[in-house]
Design goal:
The protein is 97% helix and 0% strand. It is mainly alpha-helical. The protein has one domain. The protein is rod-shaped. The relative contact order is 0.03.
């Protein structure tokens, strides 16, 4: 009976200490709440930036492929234009030679 009485004697003191510890814990959680929320926002924003970077890389990859195809087309057009110029120059030379031969006779 004495041990029960001894425990009850210190009960208000223990409750007060427990209440104080709970208040202290609540203050610590409150102090950490704002920085953790800020960090969550930063992590979310960085995730969005990574998604944007990923989308840009995909876009540039596609555009690089398209640019390669356009270069191949441009090369074909240049070759065709060069062939046309060569044929036109050959025809002009033949006409000039024929005119010179006709005039010379």
């Amino acid at each position: 009976m004495r041990s029960q009485y001894f425990g009850l004697e210190h009960m208000p003191e223990c409750c007060c200490r427990a209440s104080h510890l709970c208040d202290h814990f609540q203050q610590m959680v409150s102090c950490w709440s704002v920085p953790l929320q800020d960090m969550a926002v930063l992590v979310h924003d960085q995730g969005l930036q990574i998604d944007d970077i990923d989308a840009n890389v995909s876009t540039y990859e596609l555009r690089t492929e398209q640019a390669g195809q356009e270069i191949v087309k441009a090369d074909k057009y240049q070759r065709a234009a060069r062939n046309r110029k060569f044929i036109l120059l050959t025809i002009v030379i033949i006409v000039v030679v024929v005119l010179v031969l006709v005039i010379a006779q």
